[in-house]
Amino acid sequence: MYPRLTLTLLPVFLLLLAISGVLLGSLDLQTALSAGPDILTDLRLSRVLVAILAGAGLGLAGAMIQGVVRNPLASPDIIGVTGGAGLAATTLLLLFPGVAFGWMIPAAIAGALLTMALMLWLVRNQDLNPARLVLVGVALSAWLGALIDWLLVSHPYQVNAALVWLTGSLWGRGWDHVAVLLPWLLVLFPLALMMALRLDLLALGDEAAEGLGANVLQTRRLALLLSVALAAVSVAVCGAISFVGLVSPHLARLLVGGSHRRLIPATAMIGAVLVLLADILARILAPPIELPAGVLTSLIGAPYFLFLLTRYRGW
Amino acid sequence: MSYLSIENLTVSYGDKVILNELNLQIPKGKITALIGPNGCGKSTLLKTVARILSPKQGQILLQGEGLHKQDTRQVARKLALLPQAPITPEGVTIRELVGYGRAPWGSRWGRLSDEDRAIVQHALKQAGLLELADRPATDLSGGQRQRAWIAMILAQNTDLVLLDEPTTWLDIAHQIELLKLMRELNQQGKTIVVVLHDLNQASRYCDELVVLKQGKVQQQGTPEQVLTQKLVEEVFDLCAEIHPDPVAGSPTLVPV
Description:
The structure holds two protein chains of two kinds.
Chain A: H1 3-23, H2 29-34, H3 38-69, H4 81-95, H5 104-122, H6 130-154, H7 159-167, H8 175-194, H9 196-202, H10 206-211, H11 216-238, H12 244-256, H13 260-284, H14 293-311
Chain B: E1 4-13, E2 16-26, E3 31-35, H1 42-49, E4 57-62, E5 65-66, H2 72-75, E6 79-82, H3 94-99, H4 114-126, H5 142-156, E7 160-164, H6 172-187, E8 191-195, H7 199-205, E9 208-213, E10 216-221, H8 223-226, H9 229-236, E11 240-244, E12 251-255
Parallel strand pairs in B: 3-8, 3-9, 6-7, 7-8
Antiparallel strand pairs in B: 1-2, 1-4, 4-5, 9-10, 11-12
């Protein structure tokens, strides 16, 4: 593998994809331009940016959680963050349909953070033991999933909006959403990069990490918190786009190796590429009907993940 | 004042007391082996010195300074630990793995300076891993892996080195190779504390033996002083004769 080369090529690829994201759409370029520049800049460009930011956030969240748990199955979905945000959003959409859409994002973030608090309370005596975290997370996610289903089934008439949100979609996302995501990522991405060495050491096992000067418990806490924050804002804006948090770190590891100094930026870019690609396909596959991007990430992500597994011998 | 001083140390897992008001002085510049039957607390003692476990009572002083009161990074510049079952990470070259030994010294971001790189290069050479340095660490055999970890400890460049059963997963040839490497480390001036299962290896390759039984120090001294028929019977409940090793002359245990 050529990690350095990959790290240089990834942004180029992302840029090309972003440009095609602006140029491609249900309207061809000429019609779009004659309708005024608004379609390209206001609708498509902002949406492309949302896809990049949310994808990067989801990918990073996955890299952080996999670094903490040392388990390839770990993802923001597994630790219940997505479930918590989903329950909050579904509650808002179904029980308080009159509430302004602006409340969705804070509600979803609050739901994710509350879930995290509940999770930390449940594992409070286990020093954030990785296996424990995953098991408790799985149980918590199942429970939240059941609550969401209950809400959906008991409100059959308003179910559509909630379903689209739960699958994850970038429909109607614009500059307002960029404004929400950008400041968060500008703060969280450097913080994630600063964890790189400590996450590298954590991969050697708790004892070796502590012996090399990484405070294991503190590192786990920080990385977990970062993961939750990253996943929470991304999910709050775009809904529960699945598989990105799980697949991006795996793909990045295959391309640039296990050193987090390269893995973290690579994961962010791969997450961005995945969501952007899914959204472009969602827009152009069957116009005027738009597929939710989350459907495509799973549709492509799951078989791709299986392919990755055959390349990996470690797990 | 001794180099490493363990004073009145009590360590427990939950309600179960593993080490009970243990006192021990470990001399500078020697190889000290911790031996004893299963469950005697030897690994627990090593892990408490390495600060993986915290004492319930008592203290551990390294050159007069309390180990559990210092910053983790500071301590990592003074003592290195080779855990019993370290994890070899996926997608990392041997050079990168050995480079992690510089973590307590270098930037917090993990970028290695030219000096760090030179130290890593030297450590790789000493462990005989130079030709393999750019291969993934997961490609290594068990014996090579253990050498890579030793190289990491060399790169960490601490005065005190703790080895937790370093021979456990190795075949006999690699066990001896590792014990010889340990002696080399010692000859460079490092103080070594090692948990060993094999009494004969401890007797032959270590300067000082510390025998633990039920969380207390039963005896401490040179192999000649410690390894006696009486002690083996008392501590291990084993009937054995002690004969000099035909090659090295160190006391050797032969079960009856």
